[in-house]
Every structure is written in C-alpha cells, then in structure tokens.
Amino acid sequence: MTWSIIARDDSTGQFGIAVATRFFAAGAHVPHIAAGMGAIATQALVNPYYGIDGVRLLREGRSAHDVVETVIAADPGRKARQLHIMDASGGIASHTGRECIEWCGHIEGSGFSIAGNMLAGARVLDDTAKAYVANEKLPFARRLIAAMRAGEAAGGDKRGKQSAALLIYGDEEWAALDLRVDDHNDPLTELERLEQVSRERWVHFRKYLPTRMNPAGITDRATIDAGIEAAIAGER
C-alpha cells in the first residue's frame, strides 16, 4: 500500500526518505533514520519495530543486510511485511514478504533504494528511479519529491492517494527536515508546497540550533534574525 525511496545525498552526506500511500499518516511509522548511520522504511502491513529496532542496530554499526535478517527473524508476521534499508557504507538490503499484495518489489541504484507494494505496476518504481537519477542537480529534498511525483504519474498506489512524507537527517540527531501530509487529496503536491515553505525561514534558522559540537547553538535573536534576512536576500 506504499512506495518509498531511501537515498543518501553525495554532496552533504544526508540520508533522506520520501514516502506516499493511500493510507493515513505514512510519515508517522514508515520512515526511520539514524543520523549518519543509515535509513529504514517499513511498510506493507507495517511493523513500527522494524524502524525502532533497526535504527538501534544501525547505530551499533550493523550492516543493512544484518539488520534486515535480524528484525524479520524476530517477527512471525514477516510474510506480510516489506522493508528496505541503507547503511552508513551505502549497503542496501530489503525484504518483501510473499503475502505482500501485488504489484510489489524493490529496486536499487547508486546511492538509492526504492520499494513498494500494492502498486499500479513495476513502472512506479522504475519511473521513481529514473526521475531521481535525472534530477541530480536539484537540491536533495526537491530531488526526492520529484522522484516520487514521477512514480505517482506512473500509477502510484493502485488504490489512490492520501498521505506522504519527507524525512531528512544530516549529522545531528534531530531532523534537518521532517514534513508530513497525513490526509490530503493530493499529498505529494502538498508536500512540495511545504518543502517550499520550509525554505522561507526554517532552512536558514536551523543552522542556529544547538549541535553536539555547539550545545548552546546561537541564542542571540538579533544575530539569528540578521542571519536569516541576509540568507533570504542572497537568494533573491
């Protein structure tokens, strides 16, 4: 009932996941990222613990293949699950249970992994991949959305549309971008709009937040406001 793309941005090292489905609030349970260590999408008859336990294992330095084998071994319902994972070294692994509803499957490329189930057909994943590769000059968030839009144009979830999400992590343990469209008649269009809004202030503000290297961040409001205004002016 879902398809998703996991990717790592070559220029920043960020991990990102974009997902869309005809189901409520996909962003609440499908995408999981361990900053600097890897990313997991758990879908079909979703098991949230694939993400919760999988992120812990990635942080321990386990490979994508090892994480997949570990989490599905502990789950008697694995025949109805789908997940795919990318680890810190770029390794990719996936599982599509034999009870997942057609069309279902997984493909991978250089720096990305795409998986889906209950789709209109294999072309959904193929076109998602082609668009991701073709849009390498786009900023990472927009590249992920463009890939998903191409998959939707190929038929997407065969039941229709309802929710979408975009999750991106950099080096810090908080998300660089966490956008969710939980219930909408055109969720990817709304996700695209939210990403555009994020560029008005959030992407400039986030560099002032606390980090592990600078636990206080920047707290002087005049400095923050001036920096944001200068960044916005520089984009005009």
Task: Tag the structure with descriptive keywords.
236 residues, alpha+beta, four-stranded antiparallel beta sheet
Describe the structure.
With 236 residues, the protein is α+β, with helices and mostly antiparallel strands. It has two domains: 2-187, Aminohydrolase, N-terminal nucleophile (Ntn) domain (Glutamine Phosphoribosylpyrophosphate, subunit 1, domain 1, 4-Layer Sandwich); 200-236, no CATH class. It has seven helices and ten strands. The protein has helices at 48-59, 64-73, 123-134, 140-153, 187-198, 202-205, 221-235; strands at 2-8, 15-21, 31-34, 38-44, 81-87, 92-96, 105-109, 112-117, 163-169, 177-181. The strands form two sheets. A six-stranded antiparallel sheet has the order 7-8-1-2-9-10, with helices on one face. Strands 3-4-5-6 form a four-stranded antiparallel sheet. Helix 3 (123-134) runs antiparallel to helix 4 (140-153). The termini are far apart. The model has no long low-confidence stretch (mean pLDDT 96).
Compact overview of the structure:
The chain has two domains: 2-187, Glutamine Phosphoribosylpyrophosphate, subunit 1, domain 1 (4-Layer Sandwich), CATH 3.60.20; 200-236, no CATH class. The protein is built from seven helices and ten strands. It has helices spanning 48-59, 64-73, 123-134, 140-153, 187-198, 202-205, 221-235; strands at 2-8, 15-21, 31-34, 38-44, 81-87, 92-96, 105-109, 112-117, 163-169, 177-181.
Question: What's the count of strands?
Answer: 10
Q: State the CATH class of the largest domain.
A: Alpha Beta
Which structural class is indicated by helix and strand composition?
A: alpha+beta
The CATH fourth-level homologous superfamily of the largest domain: Aminohydrolase, N-terminal nucleophile (Ntn) domain
Shape call: globular
CATH-derived topology of the largest domain: Glutamine Phosphoribosylpyrophosphate, subunit 1, domain 1
Q: Strand arrangement, largest sheet? A: 7-8-1-2-9-10
As for the number of domains, it is 2
Q: Could you give the distance between the termini?
A: 41 Å
Which architecture name of the largest domain does CATH use? 4-Layer Sandwich
